[in-house]
Amino acid sequence: MVYAIVRAGGHQEKVSVGDIITVNRMKAKAGDSVELDAVLLVDGETVTTDPDALAKVSVSAEVAGELRGPKIVIQKYKNKTGYKKRQGHRQDLTRLKITNIK
């Protein structure tokens, strides 16, 4: 089984060919191909962590689309002053489909 740990959108994700992952928004349109940086590669029994060897590894993914994450509610409150504030946030996300690990 071949899989890799890649750095994508500020996080690290474990991926193999055919996986669909969700990362922070990337500046790419649906259908575009993107390259991800590999941090670790497992190819059967071999585990590769050497940066020089990982520079030759390419993990390619196709942008499957964009979506928005769940709503996060932010509330601020100060006792005895009458101050309260409510705010919401939804993170923009990008969905990637892993197409190749070389």
UniProtKB/TrEMBL annotation:
Looking up InterPro entries in the UniProt record yields: bL21-like, bL21-like_sf, Ribosomal_bL21, Ribosomal_bL21_CS
- Note whether rRNA-binding occurs among the keywords: yes
Coiled-coil ranges from the UniProt annotation: none
Highest taxon of source:
Bacteria
For the biological process aspect of GO, one term held by this record is:
translation
Record's Pfam families? Ribosomal_L21p (PF00829)
Keywords annotated in UniProt: Ribonucleoprotein, Ribosomal protein, RNA-binding, rRNA-binding
One GO cellular component, as annotated? ribonucleoprotein complex
**Known partners and oligomeric status:** Part of the 50S ribosomal subunit. Contacts protein L20.
Q: What does this protein do?
A: This protein binds to 23S rRNA in the presence of protein L20.
| Similarity annotation | Belongs to the bacterial ribosomal protein bL21 family.
What PANTHER family does the annotation carry? 50S RIBOSOMAL PROTEIN L21, LARGE RIBOSOMAL SUBUNIT PROTEIN BL21M
Q: What is this protein called?
A: Large ribosomal subunit protein bL21
The organism's taxonomy opens as: Bacteria, Bacillati, Actinomycetota, Actinomycetes, Micrococcales
